[in-house]
Design the sequence.
């Protein structure tokens, strides 16, 4: 890294860390129903929403009802988007007259957005109308993010409450998350992004006369769309002249802001955050990277405030930060080392295939670890073209279960499940009572934590196995050899962990991947989410055990280190064989020049 | 089932709030405060004809223009309606063939190694508007020859088009190829 890259990275960390405490405190106030600086303006709106929505704000829910409300809310959202995609061509705000989605693609897309995955088997600029982008996808970005946050807050209440039946009101938590946290932050960020050049309009696509018209050859097809061949059986080509192109337009900034802030990651355009209209300058890139990590980071502080010991939150944040920067170092090393085979041809410089020039290598890599460590999945570089060890980094972060800051809410609750496992294992090893935050960890908590952590891993291994045995699935690979295996594992890991980024060479828009992926996303989202709520219910019912000499302190460095090790060991044990055959073999191939 | 009522009602409320009101207010404010950026940083000639966007690259293949980075969009390079990268993996033989071919083309036009990575590797969006200053300098002698311009004068023009790091330290120094080529044309016009 050069001096500038050190400066960019350090400044980023300073800005991020300085925002953790103020935002974390604010969010704790919001979810505890206290007055905040925004209450004078938003309080009346909040009341109006409850009145129109038929919500009794003082009603508390047990975990079963909380989970049921969450599921109902998500079913309603899913259905609305699914239908909207199926009839998109007949709805307004569609100046390009884009057609309806196929049912498999609509199913995959609606599941993808409701589960906060935002895996995209379509290209935004050529498939989604402005109405779909706004009233469909943007709404999902908000509500799926607020859903994840609500579940995390319910789990925290489980730790805080004693001998209680209830863990909060889902509708109130959802509304507060959207109204006080996501909407104001998105609003300010969207304007900030426009100032840098992110577009925000409703114009039809604009025609541009090229400075230099050119022509290209394309395969000639007959009226039925089949490629034509000449008498000798060779494919026929025709020359196409290009003197005009069309620039896509749309309300991009408003979606871009919530896409990063809610760790959703579904791009307005196919190239996602690498597209100059989504991410035009180094400064917009800085802001977008910050938005991705902001809420997941600050939620650790909210957790600390709510359990009455902010050091508990800092301990988790320290673990996340350590893993993030470790991943960043490996990625930076691999990408700046570049591709030795290309250097032999006379090329000089880092691996810029699939990267934009303007951001610089370090900022590109920081975005890449942020977007895969959280469940965001927006991309600023094409992960498929990373060097083998570089590509291992985003894949590894996804496979760890989205805890390196993690998705909004889901990162914190998955990390808390890991903390419970860590407490339990250390309890077995050193003979201390397994307690966390004054609550005894018993069989039920262990079960729920294990379900939370292993669901995605099991789904990845089984479904990847199925894909490897299915000829249609293998036909989607764009790159030969071990890289193709990595493409498939990456796709399924990304969907099962609700990340949504891709080794995009793999063609995902086939009935096989659309349906298999929808299944992976559903299990990967709701399996852990419902287990966590069940755990919240059981924790809330327990009495408080005051810390004794036999209690392992969980707000100190030794526990943070132990937690890090547990995370790495669980991840390595689950996935080492698959990773050895994919990226690691490819790395050796690349070095060997073969 | 009493929670199905709020489920449907809140869906409608949030669709109005987050999917209608929020983007509408952002649009109105954005177009009032940053009208040029909100519309796509468009570039037009004196007659008002749209020449492109400062943010979206265009394809150039003639000797007399500076060339942009390779683009993997289909069916032709720099197609703004099909953004995306090549997605070629680092050991894919196709990547090596492509890079070799691009280097041969540059050599054929008189450029010598080292070839900067950005000029022979395709961008992520396929629409990257920039090349590095080194990649622009590598092309100066070719463009100067094709246009009958003095190399020194052209190098000064390129220098003037280099955008520095944002705020002095963010990102990379870069040259906007479309702007450079427009400047080139206006240089030759009078």
Sequence:
């Amino acid at each position: 890294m050069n001096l500038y890259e050190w400066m960019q990275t350090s400044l980023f960390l300073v800005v991020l860390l300085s925002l953790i405490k103020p935002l974390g405190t604010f969010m704790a106030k919001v979810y505890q129903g206290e007055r905040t600086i925004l209450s004078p303006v938003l309080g009346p709106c909040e009341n109006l929403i409850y009145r129109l929505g038929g919500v009794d704000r003082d009603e508390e829910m047990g975990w079963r009802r909380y989970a049921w409300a969450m599921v109902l809310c998500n079913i309603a959202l899913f259905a609305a988007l699914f239908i909207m995609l199926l009839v998109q061509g007949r709805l307004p705000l569609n100046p390009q007259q884009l057609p309806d989605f196929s049912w498999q693609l609509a199913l995959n897309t609606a599941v993808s957005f409701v589960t906060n995955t935002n895996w995209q088997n379509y290209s935004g600029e050529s498939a989604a109308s402005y109405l779909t982008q706004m009233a469909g996808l943007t709404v999902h970005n908000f509500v799926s993010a607020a859903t994840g946050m609500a579940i995390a807050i319910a789990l925290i209440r489980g730790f805080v409450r004693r001998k209680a039946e209830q863990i909060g009101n889902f509708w109130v938590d959802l509304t507060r998350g959207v109204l006080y946290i996501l909407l104001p932050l998105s609003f300010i960020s969207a304007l900030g992004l426009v100032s840098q050049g992110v577009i925000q309009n409703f114009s039809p696509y604009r025609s541009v006369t090229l400075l230099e018209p050119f022509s290209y050859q394309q395969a000639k097809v007959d009226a039925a769309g089949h490629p034509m061949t000449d008498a000798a059986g060779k494919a026929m080509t025709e020359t196409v002249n290009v003197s005009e192109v069309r620039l896509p337009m749309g309300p991009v900034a408003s979606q871009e802001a919530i896409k990063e802030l809610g760790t959703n990651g579904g791009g307005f355009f196919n190239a996602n955050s690498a597209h100059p209209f989504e991410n035009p300058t180094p400064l917009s890139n800085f802001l977008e990277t910050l938005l991705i990590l902001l809420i997941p980071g600050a939620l650790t502080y909210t957790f600390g405030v709510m359990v009455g010991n902010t050091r508990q939150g800092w301990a988790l944040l320290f673990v996340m930060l350590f893993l993030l920067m470790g991943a960043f170092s490996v990625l930076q090393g691999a990408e700046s080392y570049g591709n030795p085979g290309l250097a032999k041809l006379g090329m000089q410089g880092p691996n810029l295939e699939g990267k934009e020039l303007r951001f610089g290598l370090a900022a590109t890599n920081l975005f890449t670890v942020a977007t895969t460590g959280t469940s965001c999945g927006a991309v600023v570089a094409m992960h498929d073209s990373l060097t083998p060890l570089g590509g291992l980094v985003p894949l590894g972060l996804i496979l760890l279960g989205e805890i390196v800051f993690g998705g909004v809410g889901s990162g914190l609750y998955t990390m808390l499940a890991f903390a419970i496992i860590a407490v339990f294992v250390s309890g077995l090893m050193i003979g201390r009572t397994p307690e966390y935050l004054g609550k005894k960890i018993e069989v039920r908590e262990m079960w729920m934590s294990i379900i939370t952590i292993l669901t995605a891993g099991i789904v990845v291994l089984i479904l990847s196995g199925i894909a490897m045995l299915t000829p249609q699935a293998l036909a989607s690979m764009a790159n030969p050899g071990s890289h193709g295996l990595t493409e498939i594992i990456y796709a399924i890991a990304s969907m099962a962990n609700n990340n949504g980024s891709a080794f995009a060479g793999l063609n995902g828009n086939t009935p096989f991947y659309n349906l298999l992926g929808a299944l992976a996303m559903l299990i990967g989202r709701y399996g852990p989410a419902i287990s966590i709520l069940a755990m919240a219910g059981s924790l809330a019912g327990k009495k408080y055990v005051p810390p004794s000499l036999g209690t392992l302190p969980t707000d100190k460095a030794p526990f943070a280190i132990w937690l890090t090790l547990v995370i790495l060991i669980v991840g390595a044990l689950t996935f080492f064989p698959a990773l050895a055959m994919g990226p690691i073999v490819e790395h050796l191939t690349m070095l060997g020049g073969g | 089932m009493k929670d199905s009522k709020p489920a449907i009602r809140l869906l409608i409320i949030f669709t109005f709030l987050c999917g209608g009101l929020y983007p509408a207010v952002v649009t109105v404010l954005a177009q009032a405060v940053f009208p040029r950026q909100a519309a796509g940083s468009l570039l037009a000639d004196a007659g008002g004809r749209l020449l492109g966007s400062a943010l979206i690259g265009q394809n150039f293949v003639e000797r007399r223009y500076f060339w942009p980075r390779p683009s993997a969009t289909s069916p032709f390079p720099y197609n703004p309606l099909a953004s995306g990268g090549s997605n070629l993996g680092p050991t894919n033989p196709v990547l090596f063939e492509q890079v070799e071919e691009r280097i041969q083309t540059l050599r054929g036009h008189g450029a010598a190694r080292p070839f900067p990575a950005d000029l022979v590797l395709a961008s992520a969006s396929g629409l990257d508007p920039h090349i590095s200053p080194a990649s622009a300098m590598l092309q100066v002698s070719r463009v100067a020859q094709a246009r009958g311009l003095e190399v020194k004068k052209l190098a000064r023009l390129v220098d003037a088009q280099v955008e520095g790091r944002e705020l002095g330290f963010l990102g990379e120094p870069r040259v906007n190829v479309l702007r450079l080529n427009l400047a080139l044309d206006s240089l030759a016009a009078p």
